[in-house]
Amino acid sequence: MEMENETQQSKFRRICVFCGSSQGKKSSYQDAAIELGRELVVCKKLWFSRSEISIIFQLFLMHIQEEEKKGTILLWNPITSSYSKFGTFSVQIISFLSLTFFLLVLKKSLILRLVSILLQVSRNIDLVYGGGSIGLMGLVSQAVHDGGRHVIGVIPKTLMPRELTGETVGEVKAVADMHQRKAEMAKHSDAFIALPGGYGTLEELLEVITWAQLGIHDKPVGLLNVDGYYNSLLSFIDKAVEEGFISPSARQIIVSAPTAKELVKKLEVPCHESVASKLSWETEQFGYSKTYDLSR
Ligand SMILES: CC(C)=CCNc1ncnc2c1ncn2[C@@H]1O[C@H](COP(=O)(O)O)[C@@H](O)[C@H]1O
């Protein structure tokens, strides 16, 4: 039996999340931020690998053999209407039959459903974000931190006073300004996700899309379209494609989904090809002497 996709372990080590410094009016935005945080930490495992099945049955067999040695396993004999002890041969027959039953008779979907209820596996993705505990930023960072993953907040020195950003969980990276913040956030991440947000979120999102278009990085960019919040932005982008301002291949840079689970799953699949040749991000234009290579 072919077990595709044997593991759900993520290919991403760190994801950068852009989101509102406000919580938004609907509770669904806040729920989505928490759900995204949890999704980075853990996901339901949907598959057993062959080696795992074999281990489970070995353990099952060992358990039955132990019980059989103790003589605690009794078999109901309908002919004599009495219980008799379970022999080693019976143990082997039962183990063989149950294994065959599991692998050949039970439907794959049923096995998967059972397994997805029973098992959880870590995604183990760390978070990079704008720092602070205000708005959706606070909710997503707290969820990742609570899940035991590393959180890196990148904050410009001028925003560091707590009354502006609130208490930050995890590691704080102080940077000179907003430009350096975006470069640092991008450099330390393997993918980007935008939750609902305002000007700041839009600016950060559009910048990483533009960088992908220019070939500065080829990291996936996801839009968490909670309750259709970004529908009008997506329509506008489609209009720009129609009118010839955005190329159809550059349109593919944005991957969107209504839930965190679907979005992270979509991002795991290689999505956009490098739209332009790879460049190194020269930040001299912003007054830095250092060259940032965003490809990590
Ligand atoms: C001075 C002031 C109003 C500070 C508010 N406090 C903030 N602290 C940290 N990052 C922020 C703050 N406001 C906006 N940002 C940045 O802009 C994004 C959110 O902006 P917005 O709420 O979508 O538009 C965040 O990802 C973050 O990178």
UniProtKB/TrEMBL annotation:
Coiled-coil regions listed: none
Transmembrane segments: 86-106
Reaction catalysed by this enzyme: 9-ribosyl-trans-zeatin 5'-phosphate + H2O = trans-zeatin + D-ribose 5-phosphate; N(6)-(dimethylallyl)adenosine 5'-phosphate + H2O = N(6)-dimethylallyladenine + D-ribose 5-phosphate
GO MF annotation list: hydrolase activity, hydrolyzing N-glycosyl compounds
Record has Transmembrane helix as a keyword: yes
Superkingdom of this protein's organism: Eukaryota
Keyword Hydrolase applies: yes
GO BP annotation list: cytokinin biosynthetic process
Family: Belongs to the LOG family.
Main function: Cytokinin-activating enzyme working in the direct activation pathway. Phosphoribohydrolase that converts inactive cytokinin nucleotides to the biologically active free-base forms.
Protein name: Cytokinin riboside 5'-monophosphate phosphoribohydrolase
